[in-house]
Amino acid sequence: MTTVRLPLFPLNSVLFPGLVLPLNVFEERYRAMMRTLLKVPEDEPRRFAVVAIRDGHEVAPSAPGMPDPTALPERGPGAGFGADPAKAFHAVGCVADAATIRERSDGTFEVLATGTTRVRLRSVDASGPFLTAELEELPEDPGDEAGALAEGVLRSFRQYQKRLAGARERSLATGGELPDEPSVVSYLVAAAMMLDTPTKQRLLQAPDTASRLRDELKLLRAETAIIRNLPSLPAAELTRGPTSLN
């Protein structure tokens, strides 16, 4: 079992290996994290871990709250996540490698990172200026028939795109633009589908690639059938994820 200790960045979204994560960092605990990462030599990876929030908030309250307007805002690295922050997060997350960390004149940061490796959360430390975590790296097991399943998922994904974005959508990916490596397919489709966070989290923590692809195949067929019966459903851009506030 390989473990690593990294800064921890909780989000209200799921990061998958290979996917790009843009961040607008303005809260002090995460600004402190970025200042620390900037001290890492440029020829070394500037890594942090992203976990989806199970119960809590990306941004800690910064003003008196409701229903008690006199309540003081929470401070510190674990603000908004309760007495035991580990319980507020899903157990499986993803390591992010920050390719770009740019500090603005007002002290906030613009960050562009890419998901690399799945990890399991073992413990969370809130004693410093930002959260850190002990993490166990999770291998990606292909499972049985991953190649054939990936082909089926790609076919279903193209139909899903056509139904959701419209056959004339210029940004619609073609066969040549989509990968064929099963694990890459599984993560790309998981990130691109219009799914809620619990479902995306389930896909992230699938025991192997084949299991994730089987789940995606069921989801794609179900979602495509729903869209087929709802022709007025507004189109959505599939290749762009929401930028986190933090």
From TrEMBL:
Residue ranges annotated for the Lon N-terminal domain, each copy included: 6-224
Family matches, as InterPro entries: Lon_prtase_N, Lon_prtase_N_sf, PUA-like_sf
Pfam families: LON_substr_bdg
PROSITE patterns: LON_N
Classification via Gene3D superfamilies: 1.20.58.1480, LON domain-like
Superkingdom: Bacteria
Protein name according to UniProt: LON peptidase substrate-binding domain-containing protein
